């Protein structure tokens, strides 16, 4: 019984930590992200609606996932010569903002991922 009492505060702390990192928190600003994401759209397409199979579609992607990938590129645990460089200067707020922006662009055009992509850029 003594042991259980001693362990409990640690378990509580762990649970509190889980709760804090649990559900998606929308911390990013779509407006700020729109400006910060201008350079990204050279490759990822307007609004992140890439029509080039070399560049992943970011439009409508969950912002949490985008932030996670950007952190991995920055840390070098996900390796890509281009993206390691693109993620390097980003602050956590920059990541949240661009993620919020790209997440938001899907609904801009009737929920369709590929509307707005010029026909000649569409993968066959
Ligand atoms: C010069 C082209 C280029 C630019 C500019 C660029 N990216 Fe990328 N991005 C890529 C490529 C190529 C990949 C695929 C990497 C791989 O295969 O792992 C990628 C992958 C990603 C991914 C992972 C997508 C997934 O589905 O896992 C995210 C997120 C991302 N880029 C965000 C950004 C952001 C944010 C910016 C602007 C700060 C940016 N990119 C600028 C080329 C680019």
What does this protein look like?
This protein has 124 residues and is mostly helical. The radius of gyration is 19 Å and the shape is globular. The protein has a single domain (25-121), classed as Cytochrome Bc1 Complex, Chain D, domain 2 (Orthogonal Bundle). It has helices at 2-21, 30-36, 41-44, 63-75, 81-87, 92-108. The longest helix is centred in the N-terminal third of the chain and has 20 residues, at 2-21. The structure holds heme C.
Q: Choose one word for the global shape.
A: globular
Which stretches of 5+ consecutive residues score pLDDT under 50? 17-24
Sketch the topology as an H/E string, one letter per element.
HHHHHH
- As for the number of domains, it is 1
Q: What is the percentage of strand-forming residues? A: under 5%
In a nutshell, what does this entry contain?
With 124 residues, the chain is mainly α.
Question: Helices and strands in order, then pairings?
Answer:
Blueprint: H1 2-21, H2 30-36, H3 41-44, H4 63-75, H5 81-87, H6 92-108
Helix pairs in contact: 2-6, 4-5, 4-6
Bound molecules: heme C.
Task: Give short descriptive properties of this protein.
mainly alpha, binds heme C, 0% strand, 55% helix
């Amino acid at each position: 019984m003594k042991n259980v009492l001693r362990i409990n505060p640690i378990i509580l702390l762990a649970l509190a930590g889980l709760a804090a990192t649990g559900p998606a928190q929308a911390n990013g600003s779509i407006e700020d992200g729109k400006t910060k994401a201008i350079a990204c759209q050279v490759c990822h397409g307007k609004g992140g609606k890439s029509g080039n199979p070399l560049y992943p579609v970011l439009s409508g992607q969950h912002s949490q996932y985008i932030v996670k990938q950007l952190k991995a590129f920055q840390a070098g645990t996900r390796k890509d010569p281009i993206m390691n460089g693109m993620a390097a200067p980003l602050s956590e707020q920059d990541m949240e903002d661009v993620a919020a922006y790209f997440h938001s662009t899907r609904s801009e055009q009737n929920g369709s991922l590929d509307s707005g992509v010029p026909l000649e850029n569409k993968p066959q």
